[in-house]
Design goal:
The structure holds 2 protein chains of 2 kinds.
Chain A: H1 10-23, H2 28-31, E1 54-60, H3 63-70, H4 73-79, E2 82-88, H5 90-102, E3 110-113, H6 115-122, H7 130-133, H8 151-155, E4 166-169, E5 173-178, H9 179-193, H10 205-218, E6 225-227, H11 235-247, H12 274-289, H13 299-307, E7 311-317, H14 321-327, E8 332-335, E9 346-347, E10 351-355, H15 361-374, H16 377-385, H17 396-399, H18 402-406, H19 420-426, E11 432-433, H20 441-456, H21 462-476
Parallel strand pairs in A: 1-2, 1-3, 6-7, 9-11
Antiparallel strand pairs in A: 3-10, 4-10, 5-7, 5-8
Helix pairs in contact in A: 3-16, 10-12, 11-12, 11-20, 12-21, 13-14, 20-21
Chain B: H1 3-24, E1 26-29, E2 35-38, H2 42-48, H3 51-84, H4 89-97, H5 104-114, H6 121-128, H7 145-169, H8 174-182, H9 187-214, H10 219-224, H11 236-245, E3 253-254, H12 256-283
Antiparallel strand pairs in B: 1-2, 1-3
The chains are: A alpha/beta, B mainly alpha.
């Protein structure tokens, strides 16, 4: 969930704030009052107090972290703090963070706290950031916590009284498509299919299937397959399927706010409802017309395949826009995902960064300065411009900046901003897709993608798949 | 004199092993320092009644047979070829050994790259030979995924078998080979009647080394298939890792106790395999 921005300036911001405030329960709005308004990062006092300290930041290998790793000198100049940045695949990060927190010391002071795989199961190993936010000896959070998008989902667990992380990135799944191919074939496709195939939230998943199938049969000269999916037996498969599950009106659990602040008592799963079964049946059907290599692609594999012209469209994280613009400049369009019987659902994959509770003394303070700096508007603009791939800002104010707004249209020096209108739409409460934030998510995630992998491989029918998932969920959650 | 070495040994092997056993009977909590609360045989019963664990053992056994079998055959053939070369043996030997020096994770990445259906060289070759369909990935099919990861492992470790066997081949008495030749024995007769029996102890050692390693297979399958599709490559190491990552519903207790049980069963399996081979060697009087 996250993001902001638009053509209409205030109107867009208003929509987003209202949407996020209501739908994501942004406690940030309430906390804003107790947050000192700040000037710009780099100004004011307090930045140099931990000069000479060295801290380590462990992150998933994401575009924003690559950008910060390539340009951390401004932070070191500002604070005198040396920061070492380690990047790795998320599953490896989870393991390292868990082991680090068990040792009583902290090898990693700043932690990339994925809400589902780190924050929920390990929240007790993270420091409550309110102590820094409210302490006058530290530079204030620029523009206050209210400026953050999806503060609850990225930063809290179970309770709104504690803040474990500040939103750091916010990739969201949207519909990526070859604009050039849709332009070329639009009239023929419309004549054959009987509807306007232009990607938008008005297109249903069933129509998405028909478009994919049409490309398979009629456009082989331009593109091998209509659609591709991140359907490897991996976390990515669960992410891809969740969009369809929610679109059909189903969910993993029926617990209020389980996607925002989360819960330790999710109760029985709701994966055997008629809507869930319909979603599974449709997803199974969709994968049958997808690029056959979909079952070997995670998000990176799908991103590379799309950039290589293997598929005409796909659902993927919006941060791949930067890659698209390098490989297919000017040829890619973006939309929110198709709608199901219930709604369009767009999986939010944002993450916060927090501080290891084992960090001591100066390390804690230095880590907070880094967290504050890395999530500041100025730094987020820097990552947006980075040649390393571009960031996905988590600050409302960033999307309101004139230079950022300008980048929404080509030619753009911030290619991720080309997705802005789609992402903004995706973040509306009625369109956002939030996975359940529960401590057992690592196990549940494996259950979901393992069973789905069996289903799309033909080893299990959709009904058996969902029943298996549900019973395994209930066993894990007691 | 031996005390420092023994202390080091205790620190790096005995204590962790004792800890492993203790964890297998306990609920393990990590946050705030490792703490164990005894759980009796709870972890053992959970693991031993878990269908997913048994499935992963089945997959591991299949991998074990395929990989070790292929490595023994290909490694032995490579060694025989190298041994018969009169020129360029050193260069060929160096090239053959190269894969062995790569980290398994690198082999997995190489496999991903070479077998990518869009840009992979091997995929292009196989597609040209109609061995796979257009845009089909060998990692994406239930029928080929296991074969693909097994072949990658074979590519990396057959050279080790070749190295061991080649060392054995140099010990075959030239006079015996000469006598066989004089008596009119052909290549195959000489190979199966003289060479193979002569290097049998070395072959068993190679088999033992590779067997012990094959049980712990993880890196390549992790990076290529992730255990899929449909769990067809979900080896026991992946199952162990899955338990290590998991957290119970209270958010604090981990399932590391269950992963400890799996680790111990892997160890037991390896010991059994090693003992079988050692007994075979001993029975044939080859241990001396």
């Amino acid at each position: 969930m996250d993001k902001t921005q638009t053509d209409t300036g205030m109107a867009r911001r208003t929509v987003l704030s209202a949407g996020l405030g209501a739908g994501l329960g942004l406690a940030a709005l309430g906390l804003a009052g107790c947050t000192p308004s700040a000037k710009t990062s780099g100004s004011g006092s307090g930045w140099k107090q931990f000069s000479g300290t060295t801290i380590n930041f462990i992150s998933e290998n994401t575009a924003p972290s690559a950008a910060i790793a390539a340009n951390s000198k401004p932070f070191e100049d500002l604070t005198g703090i040396k920061v070492n940045i380690t990047q790795m695949a998320l599953e490896n990060l989870v393991q390292k963070v868990k082991l680090d927190m068990s040792g009583g010391t902290s090898q990693y002071h700043v932690v990339y706290a994925d809400p589902y795989q780190v924050l929920a199961p390990l929240s007790q190993g993270l420091t409550d950031l309110n102590q820094f936010v409210n302490d006058k000896k530290y530079p204030p959070v620029e523009k206050g916590l209210a400026d953050f998008i999806a503060l609850d989902a990225a930063g809290r667990f179970e309770s709104k009284s504690k803040l474990y992380a500040l939103p750091y990135d916010c990739p969201t799944m949207i519909w990526m498509f070859r604009q050039d191919l849709f332009d070329k074939y639009k009239s023929k496709m419309q004549a054959d299919l009987g509807f306007d195939p232009t990607p938008s939230g008005k297109i249903t998943w069933e129509q998405y299937y028909q478009i994919a199938d049409w490309f398979n049969k009629n456009a082989k000269a331009d593109v091998p397959y209509g659609t591709g999916h991140q359907a490897k037996q991996h976390d990515s498969l669960q992410c891809d399927f969740s969009n369809v599950l929610w679109a059909y009106g189903a969910d993993y659990f029926d617990v209020p706010d389980i996607g925002t602040v989360g819960s330790q008592n999710p109760g029985k799963s709701t994966l055997t409802t008629p809507q869930a079964l319909d979603a599974a049946k449709f997803y199974d059907k969709l994968l049958k017309v997808a690029h056959p290599s979909s079952t070997t692609w995670d998000w990176d594999g799908l991103g590379n395949a799309f950039a290589a012209g293997q598929v005409a469209m796909c659902p993927n994280w919006h941060e791949y826009a930067a890659t698209n613009e390098k490989s297919l400049p000017g040829k890619v369009g973006y939309s929110i995902l198709p709608t199901g019987p219930k709604r369009s659902a767009n999986n939010w994959g944002g993450t916060g960064i927090g501080i290891n509770a084992n960090a001591k003394g100066n390390e804690q303070g230095a880590a907070w300065l880094f967290v504050n700096w890395a999530t500041s508007p100025a730094t987020q603009v820097m990552t947006l411009k980075s040649a390393k791939g571009g960031g996905t800002p988590t600050r409302t104010s960033v999307y309101d900046m004139a230079e950022v707004k300008k980048a929404e249209k080509r030619p753009s020096d911030m290619p991720n901003m080309l997705t802005a209108s789609a992402v903004l739409e995706a973040w509306k409460p009625e369109n956002i897709g939030l996975r359940p934030k529960v401590a057992t998510w690592n196990q549940l995630d494996t259950i979901v993608y393992t069973n789905l992998s069996k289903m799309i491989a033909g080893s299990q029918d959709p009904t058996t798949t969902m029943q298996a998932m549900a019973s395994q969920f209930d066993k894990v959650n007691g | 004199m031996m005390l420092p070495a023994l202390l080091v040994l205790v620190l790096i092997t005995v204590l962790p092993f004792i800890m492993l056993i203790a964890m297998s009977f306990a609920k393990v909590r990590l946050l705030g320092g490792v703490s164990l609360s005894m759980n009796g045989f709870g972890n053992w019963s959970d693991v031993l009644t878990d269908p997913a664990t048994w499935h992963s053992w089945g997959v591991t056994l299949l991998f074990f047979v395929l990989a070790v079998g292929m490595e023994m055959i290909v490694g032995t053939v490579l060694a025989l070829i190298l041994n018969s070369m009169r020129r360029g043996q050193s260069l060929a030997f160096s090239l053959v050994l190269l894969p062995m020096f790569l980290a398994p994770i690198t082999v997995g990445l190489l496999g991903n790259f070479l077998l990518d259906p869009t840009i992979g060289l091997y995929s292009w070759v196989m597609e040209s030979l109609h061995l796979v369909g257009a845009h089909q990935s060998v990692f994406g099919s239930q029928t080929t995924a296991m074969l693909a990861v097994t072949t990658l492992d074979m590519w990396e470790w057959a050279p080790l078998v070749a190295l061991i066997v080649l060392a054995g081949l140099t010990s075959v008495s030239p006079s015996v080979l000469e006598a066989a030749s004089v008596d009119g024995a052909g290549y195959l007769r000489t190979l199966f009647s003289i060479v193979i029996p002569s290097i049998l102890p070395v072959l068993l050692v190679a088999l033992l080394v590779r067997s012990m390693d094959a049980v712990r297979y993880y890196d390549i399958v992790h990076i290529t298939t992730g255990g899929g599709p449909a769990n067809t490559t979900w080896v026991i190491s992946l199952q162990l890792n899955e338990k290590v990552q998991a957290t119970a519903v209270d958010g604090i207790t981990t399932l590391i106790g269950q992963s400890a049980v799996i680790g111990i069963t892997m160890l037991v399996f390896t010991i059994i395999i090693a003992n079988v081979f050692v007994r075979v060697l001993d029975r044939r009087g080859l241990m001396k």
